[in-house]
Amino acid sequence: MTSHASRKTSAPGEVFEFCMDYTKCPLSLQQQISKLKRRGLLFDDEQLAESYLANISYYRLRAYTYPFQNNTASEADHKFLSNDIYFSDIIDLYCFDRRLRSLMFNAIEKIEVAVRARMVQVYSEATGNSHWFLDEILYKPMMKTGRNGIPATAFALLMKDIEGEVNRSNEDFIKHYYNKYDNPSMPPAWMTLEVLSLGTLSKLYQLLKKSPEKKAIAKGFGLNDDRIFSNWLHAIAVWRNCCAHHSRVWNRRSIVNIQLPTNADNPFLDRHTLHTIHPNKVFTVLCCIKYISNIISPDSDLKRNILAIIGDGGNLLSLDEMGFPKNWKLLGVWK
């Protein structure tokens, strides 16, 4: 297969970049199977494999074959590192990942609802203001760069995000507000925060000034430091988006490193574990999710469900790759 070098045009004074033309041709399902066989993957049932490839796609499954292939630049054919890996093993891993995403998404939904409810209640009650989130005095005086590259206050950028999400909402209670009221420009906190994404909710909390109210919200979720709670919200929002967009999670390395508390109100992790687990692997965010779930939903079956899907995870599943320590089931938050 030939690739042709081409020169990318650039602005005056910039260095030219050389790029390659993409010349790979689409492959039939049978050709995809033949390619995987050449790379060393084994098949019990090629007809069944075709069905999986038709419904999942070769490219999507590549994320699950990749860790078990030689992906160095010198190894163009991406041979499998072991000669006893079956296509069914890849499907088992894919199914485990899908089930894990579903468990995480359902648990995060409860956390999102609880955080939203407590933020609305605590600040509405403390300020006596139905629209407290519009009061710039409650926020840190920070400057940021907007999407257009022009500096603006973090508050102004947050308000733009909130306004956009409210305007995109199709909820009847939002329509009712705008049909009946002209001022203030957005609905009250208990309506507006109800339609915000977890990511925007996380930004709102992070930008609020230190205050008894901000601390009380963190304390309500068993954390004595609102900075750690803010970090957890951010991290959980990132993982939630991975789950919502059906992205691989089992061996993902998050862009957000989770900060771990040494003085949590409830059983969490011992000091040795705090210093040895990876702050950007899925086990760490699962610990945070479990910790909050223990508070807002004490009868949560998250641990039982995780154990069940691990049992069906297949031959390729590595708990170590996910950041699970060997004694994870005995750690405080998981007991």
Label this structure with key terms:
13 helices; globular; mainly alpha; single chain; 50% helix; 335 residues
Task: Please give a quick description of this structure.
The chain has helices at residues 29-38, 46-56, 58-65, 87-127, 154-168, 172-180, 189-192, 198-207, 212-220, 226-244, 271-276, 282-296, 302-311; strands at residues 5-8, 17-20, 143-145, 151-153.
Describe this structure in words.
With 335 residues, this protein is mostly helical. Helix content is 50%, strand content 4%. It has a two-stranded antiparallel ribbon. A two-stranded antiparallel sheet has the order 3-4. Strand 3 and strand 4 form a beta hairpin. Helix 4 crosses helix 10 and helix 4 packs antiparallel against helix 13.
Element layout with pairings:
Layout lengths: L4 E4 L8 E4 L8 H10 L7 H11 L1 H8 L21 H41 L15 E3 L5 E3 H15 L3 H9 L8 H4 L5 H10 L4 H9 L5 H19 L26 H6 L5 H15 L5 H10 L24
Antiparallel strand pairs: 1-2, 3-4
Helix pairs in contact: 1-2, 4-9, 4-10, 4-12, 4-13, 5-8, 8-10, 9-10
